[in-house]
Task: inverse folding
């Protein structure tokens, strides 16, 4: 039987179960606020958000692969396009655009026009070093690690810090081939 | 699970029906070789203890995958057998059949492998394996109490 091609982000987004956007935004805001109260140090909170994102990412990848029905991407460029067009659309309902490829094709930037996590949010002066959406960096890093790509994801521009849009930089560090986990003797 | 039932142990095994009531054994592995799930409905002959059995199965599939990718006649030469491969290169096999059973295999890009051993007359099970994978996602990956990398209970 002919294989079904990858489904577009819109089609999947229409089919998955959704929660209220405001509920999602407010819940996330409550998490960040609680972390700030518990940890008090902004750098610690950034790290913690990244770690939480990483844990989410490692599980999210299976859902993404199952719903989007894609086979392996041939190279990193395709991977980045997948994340931006299908991934973001499927899970957050927004699309990102991929820009700024470097010469080797291992580093790109993803620009998000709108970001549902930051509706209603303002950063006070005491938290100026906070990357509010650091969880997204962790998610991408975790998900890509489960498909054998070690990456580094950071924020380049952040509206809460005064820039005009959200821009993430995704850099591929290396591709890790699968290894046989057992030792050679029985 | 209504989808798979046990097959009867009778002198002449019933032919597989359209509904597919003929799975014998099912395994699920993650990328590190941990057997996440094992279920048998009909396995008259048991030769190894479970750990050895899992290791053997995982090793077999890992090697088969490697072999089929390296022996691919349609792609450019990719290096000798034994060189670790990046995921995404080469073809992957999806089933093999002997005179007594058929083994179907699916691997997701994230390394989750699903194996189904059935009656040899069974047709192509790729859709069924995809369905199982989506069940896994729905109930296991989304379960907050599940620790990734441990066997599913």
Result:
């Amino acid at each position: 039987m002919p294989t079904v091609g990858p489904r577009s982000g819109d089609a999947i987004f229409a089919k998955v179960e959704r929660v209220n956007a405001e509920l999602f935004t407010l819940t996330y805001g409550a998490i960040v606020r609680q972390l700030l109260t518990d940890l008090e140090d902004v750098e610690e909170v950034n790290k913690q958000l990244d770690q939480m994102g990483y844990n989410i990412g490692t599980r999210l990848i299976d859902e993404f692969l199952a719903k989007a029905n894609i086979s392996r991407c041939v190279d990193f460029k395709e991977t980045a396009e997948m994340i931006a067009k299908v991934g973001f659309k499927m899970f957050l309902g927004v699309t990102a655009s991929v820009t700024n490829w470097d010469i080797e094709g291992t580093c790109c930037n993803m620009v998000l026009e709108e970001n549902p996590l930051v509706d209603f949010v303002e950063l006070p002066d005491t938290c100026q070093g906070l990357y509010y959406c650091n969880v997204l960096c962790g998610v991408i890093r975790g998900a890509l690690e489960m498909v054998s790509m070690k990456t580094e994801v950071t924020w380049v521009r952040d509206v809460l810090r005064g820039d005009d849009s959200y821009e993430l930089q995704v850099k591929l560090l290396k591709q890790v081939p699968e290894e046989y986990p057992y030792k050679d003797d029985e | 699970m209504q989808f798979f039932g046990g097959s009867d142990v009778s002198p002449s095994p019933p032919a597989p029906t359209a509904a597919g009531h003929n799975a014998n054994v099912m395994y699920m592995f993650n990328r590190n070789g941990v057997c996440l799930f094992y279920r048998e409905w009909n396995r008259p002959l048991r030769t190894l203890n479970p750990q050895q059995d899992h290791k053997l199965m995982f090793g077999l599939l890992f090697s088969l995958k490697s072999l089929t990718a390296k022996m691919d006649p349609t792609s450019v030469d990719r290096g000798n057998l034994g060189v670790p491969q990046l995921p995404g290169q080469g073809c992957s096999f999806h089933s093999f059949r002997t005179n007594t059973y058929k083994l179907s295999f699916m691997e997701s890009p994230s390394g989750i492998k699903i194996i189904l051993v059935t009656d040899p007359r069974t047709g192509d099970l790729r859709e069924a394996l995809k369905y199982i994978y989506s069940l896994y996602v729905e109930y296991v990956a989304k379960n907050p109490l599940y620790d990734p990398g441990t066997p599913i209970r």
Observations:
- Chain B has two helices and five strands.
- Chain B touches chain A at residues 31-33, 52, 55, 58-59, 62, 84-88, 108-112, 124, 127, 130, 133-134, 136-137, 141-142, 148 (CB under 8 Å).
- The radius of gyration of chain B is 16 Å.
- The first strand of chain B starts at residue 23 and ends at 29.
